[in-house]
Amino acid sequence: MTTQNELFEKSKDLVPGGVHSPVRSFKGLHTTPRFIKKAHGAFIEDVDGKDYIDFCMSFGPLVLGHKDSDVEKSLVDALSRGWSYGTCEPYSLDLASFLLSKIDFVDQIRFVNSGTEAVMTALRLARGATKKDKIIKFNGCYHGHTDSMLIKAGSGLAGTSEASSAGVPEGISKDTLILELGNTEEVIQCFKDHPGEIAAIIIEPLPANNGLLIQEKSFLEFLRKITKDNDALLIFDEVISGFRVAFGGMAELTGITPDIVTYGKIIGGGLPVGAIAAKKEIMDNLAPVGSVYQAGTLSANPLAMVGGLETLKKMTPKAYEEINANTTKIINVFNKWLKEYNDGEFSHYSLTSHSSLFWIVAAEGVNCMDKIPADITEKFNPLFETLLEKGIYLSPNAYEVGFVSLAHNDEVIGELEKRLWN
Ligand code: PMP
Hints:
The chain has 422 residues and is an alpha/beta fold. The protein is built from 13 helices and 16 strands.
């Protein structure tokens, strides 16, 4: 078989930077991206035959682990019935009714193909429902790559808008107001500065795209209240946290209910799905009932619906207990190793975690962008390379979190210990 290095050379010719998503790039590292030929449970194996304990898990969707046998069986069955109909089918109803029976603050759901699409629709829906244009977004929250969400501002620029990607027109960025996570004063001031103009606040209730910037519950409660008081909507982007921290995501865990929620990742069990859910009064704004347009050739794809349902059926309360307990064990193992390795080479690191997510960071108490150490990437890269060499795969980026799955069981944890201290 062609080697990894040969594949990467070929890939660089055919695909920008050799990758189909920049988070897969090994930019700044002394090695090239691994080309994975197969995966099973907690393991991925590259084309050179080396295997890794995977803590990237496709950036979150694979909560059961790779190639879960029940999901596989349901997909094989689904394949035999054809894989896209472009009309109504029963499979999305099975998934919708299963979800809606368990998440009681929403009445309806619409399936799309990615988290980005879900957020794009949620924003249009919020604007259409409120007839207002501006959206408050927090610095450090990622909501996919729709133009209006690719905006950031340093703390000195709070309340103003500056695009963080080329190609985002000023006309679009001006309606996204960037504020600092956890700063209630800024939110109050922003509503004063833009009376009657703010359609919604969007937040990752567990910000997990610039490390893990865990927020106080009181901040989410404050956002709930200020949006209500100002006739604005609260959007929880639960693309990562939905079905991970609890079945109903952070909304269930905190008891704080948003007006609109977006899902992705686990909802498709590793197949491309995103979703928007809300009360019927809000969802009625979507076409064909209302005038907010949204569509998709492959939306509610039958394979993805079946893969999602089979995955979610396994996320019982017991499964959450198990995955969280295993994460605690994994964190203890990593923390011990970080202290001991090579006479303390990595001893300044600690792991921040929430449920089955963790982040390796070289500082304590990081909960907003300002507190992330400036040299985080330079410090992370040697750690990443050491772990890779030992057959342990993290996302190749200091800002990404690690994901634990139900397949990361005691046996895998034993193997992790063996590999770390080897
Ligand atoms: N919102 C959040 C909170 C996310 O974590 C992501 C993806 N990491 C997205 C939106 C975009 O999802 P997708 O990559 O499926 O477009």
